Amino acid sequence: MYKATTQQIQVTVEPSFLEPESAPDDSRYFWAYTIEIANLGDAVVQLRSRHWRITDANGRTEEVRGAGVVGEQPVLKPGETFSYTSGCPLTTNSGIMVGSYEMEGENGDLFSIDIPAFSLDLPDQRKTVN
Asked: What is the pLDDT along the chain (130 residues), one digit of tens a residue?
C-alpha cells in the first residue's frame, strides 16, 4: 500500500496485477488499483480533476488528464472517504504511476494534492518505486 497526505487530504493506493486480463505472450499486462481519498481536515472539499504520469519498463511515459475520477467529482466532508477502482494496461511487465488531484475548497480555491508514486509489478517480482 502507498500513501501520501497533502493539505490534510490522504490518498492511499493499492495496486494489483490482473492475470486474467493480461496476455504476456502478446505483451499485454493489466493492473487494477484501488484508491481511497480521505478528508482528514475540517473543511469540505471536492475532487475536480486528475493528472496521471504512467511510465512503463522501457521508460515510455504517458500523461492522462481529465475531469473527476470514474465519472464522478466527489464531495468529501470532514472525516469522509471516497474509494474507487480503476485500471492501467501496459505493454511491459512493470511500470510506475504517479499523479495529482485538483481539489476545490469551500471558498472556491483550487489546490493540488499528491497521488503517491506506486509500482505496477508482477506478483513474483520485487516491488520498487524508482
From this structure: 999 999 999 999 999 999 999 999 999 999 999 999 999 999 999 999 999 999 999 999 999 999 999 999 999 999 999 999 999 999 999 999 999 999 999 999 999 999 999 999 998 765 555 5
CA-wise closest residue to 46 among 130, 108, 2, 91: 108
* 42 backbone dihedrals φ, ψ, rounded to 5°: -115, 20
What is the rounded CA–CA span in Å between residue 13 and residue 70? Answer: 15
pTM of the model: 0.91
Q: Which residues contact 44 (CB under 8 A, 6 or more apart)?
A: 75, 76, 77, 78, 105, 106
Question: From the CA atom positions of the chain, what is the Rg in Å?
Answer: 15
CA dihedral 98, 102, 103, 104 (to 10 degrees): 170
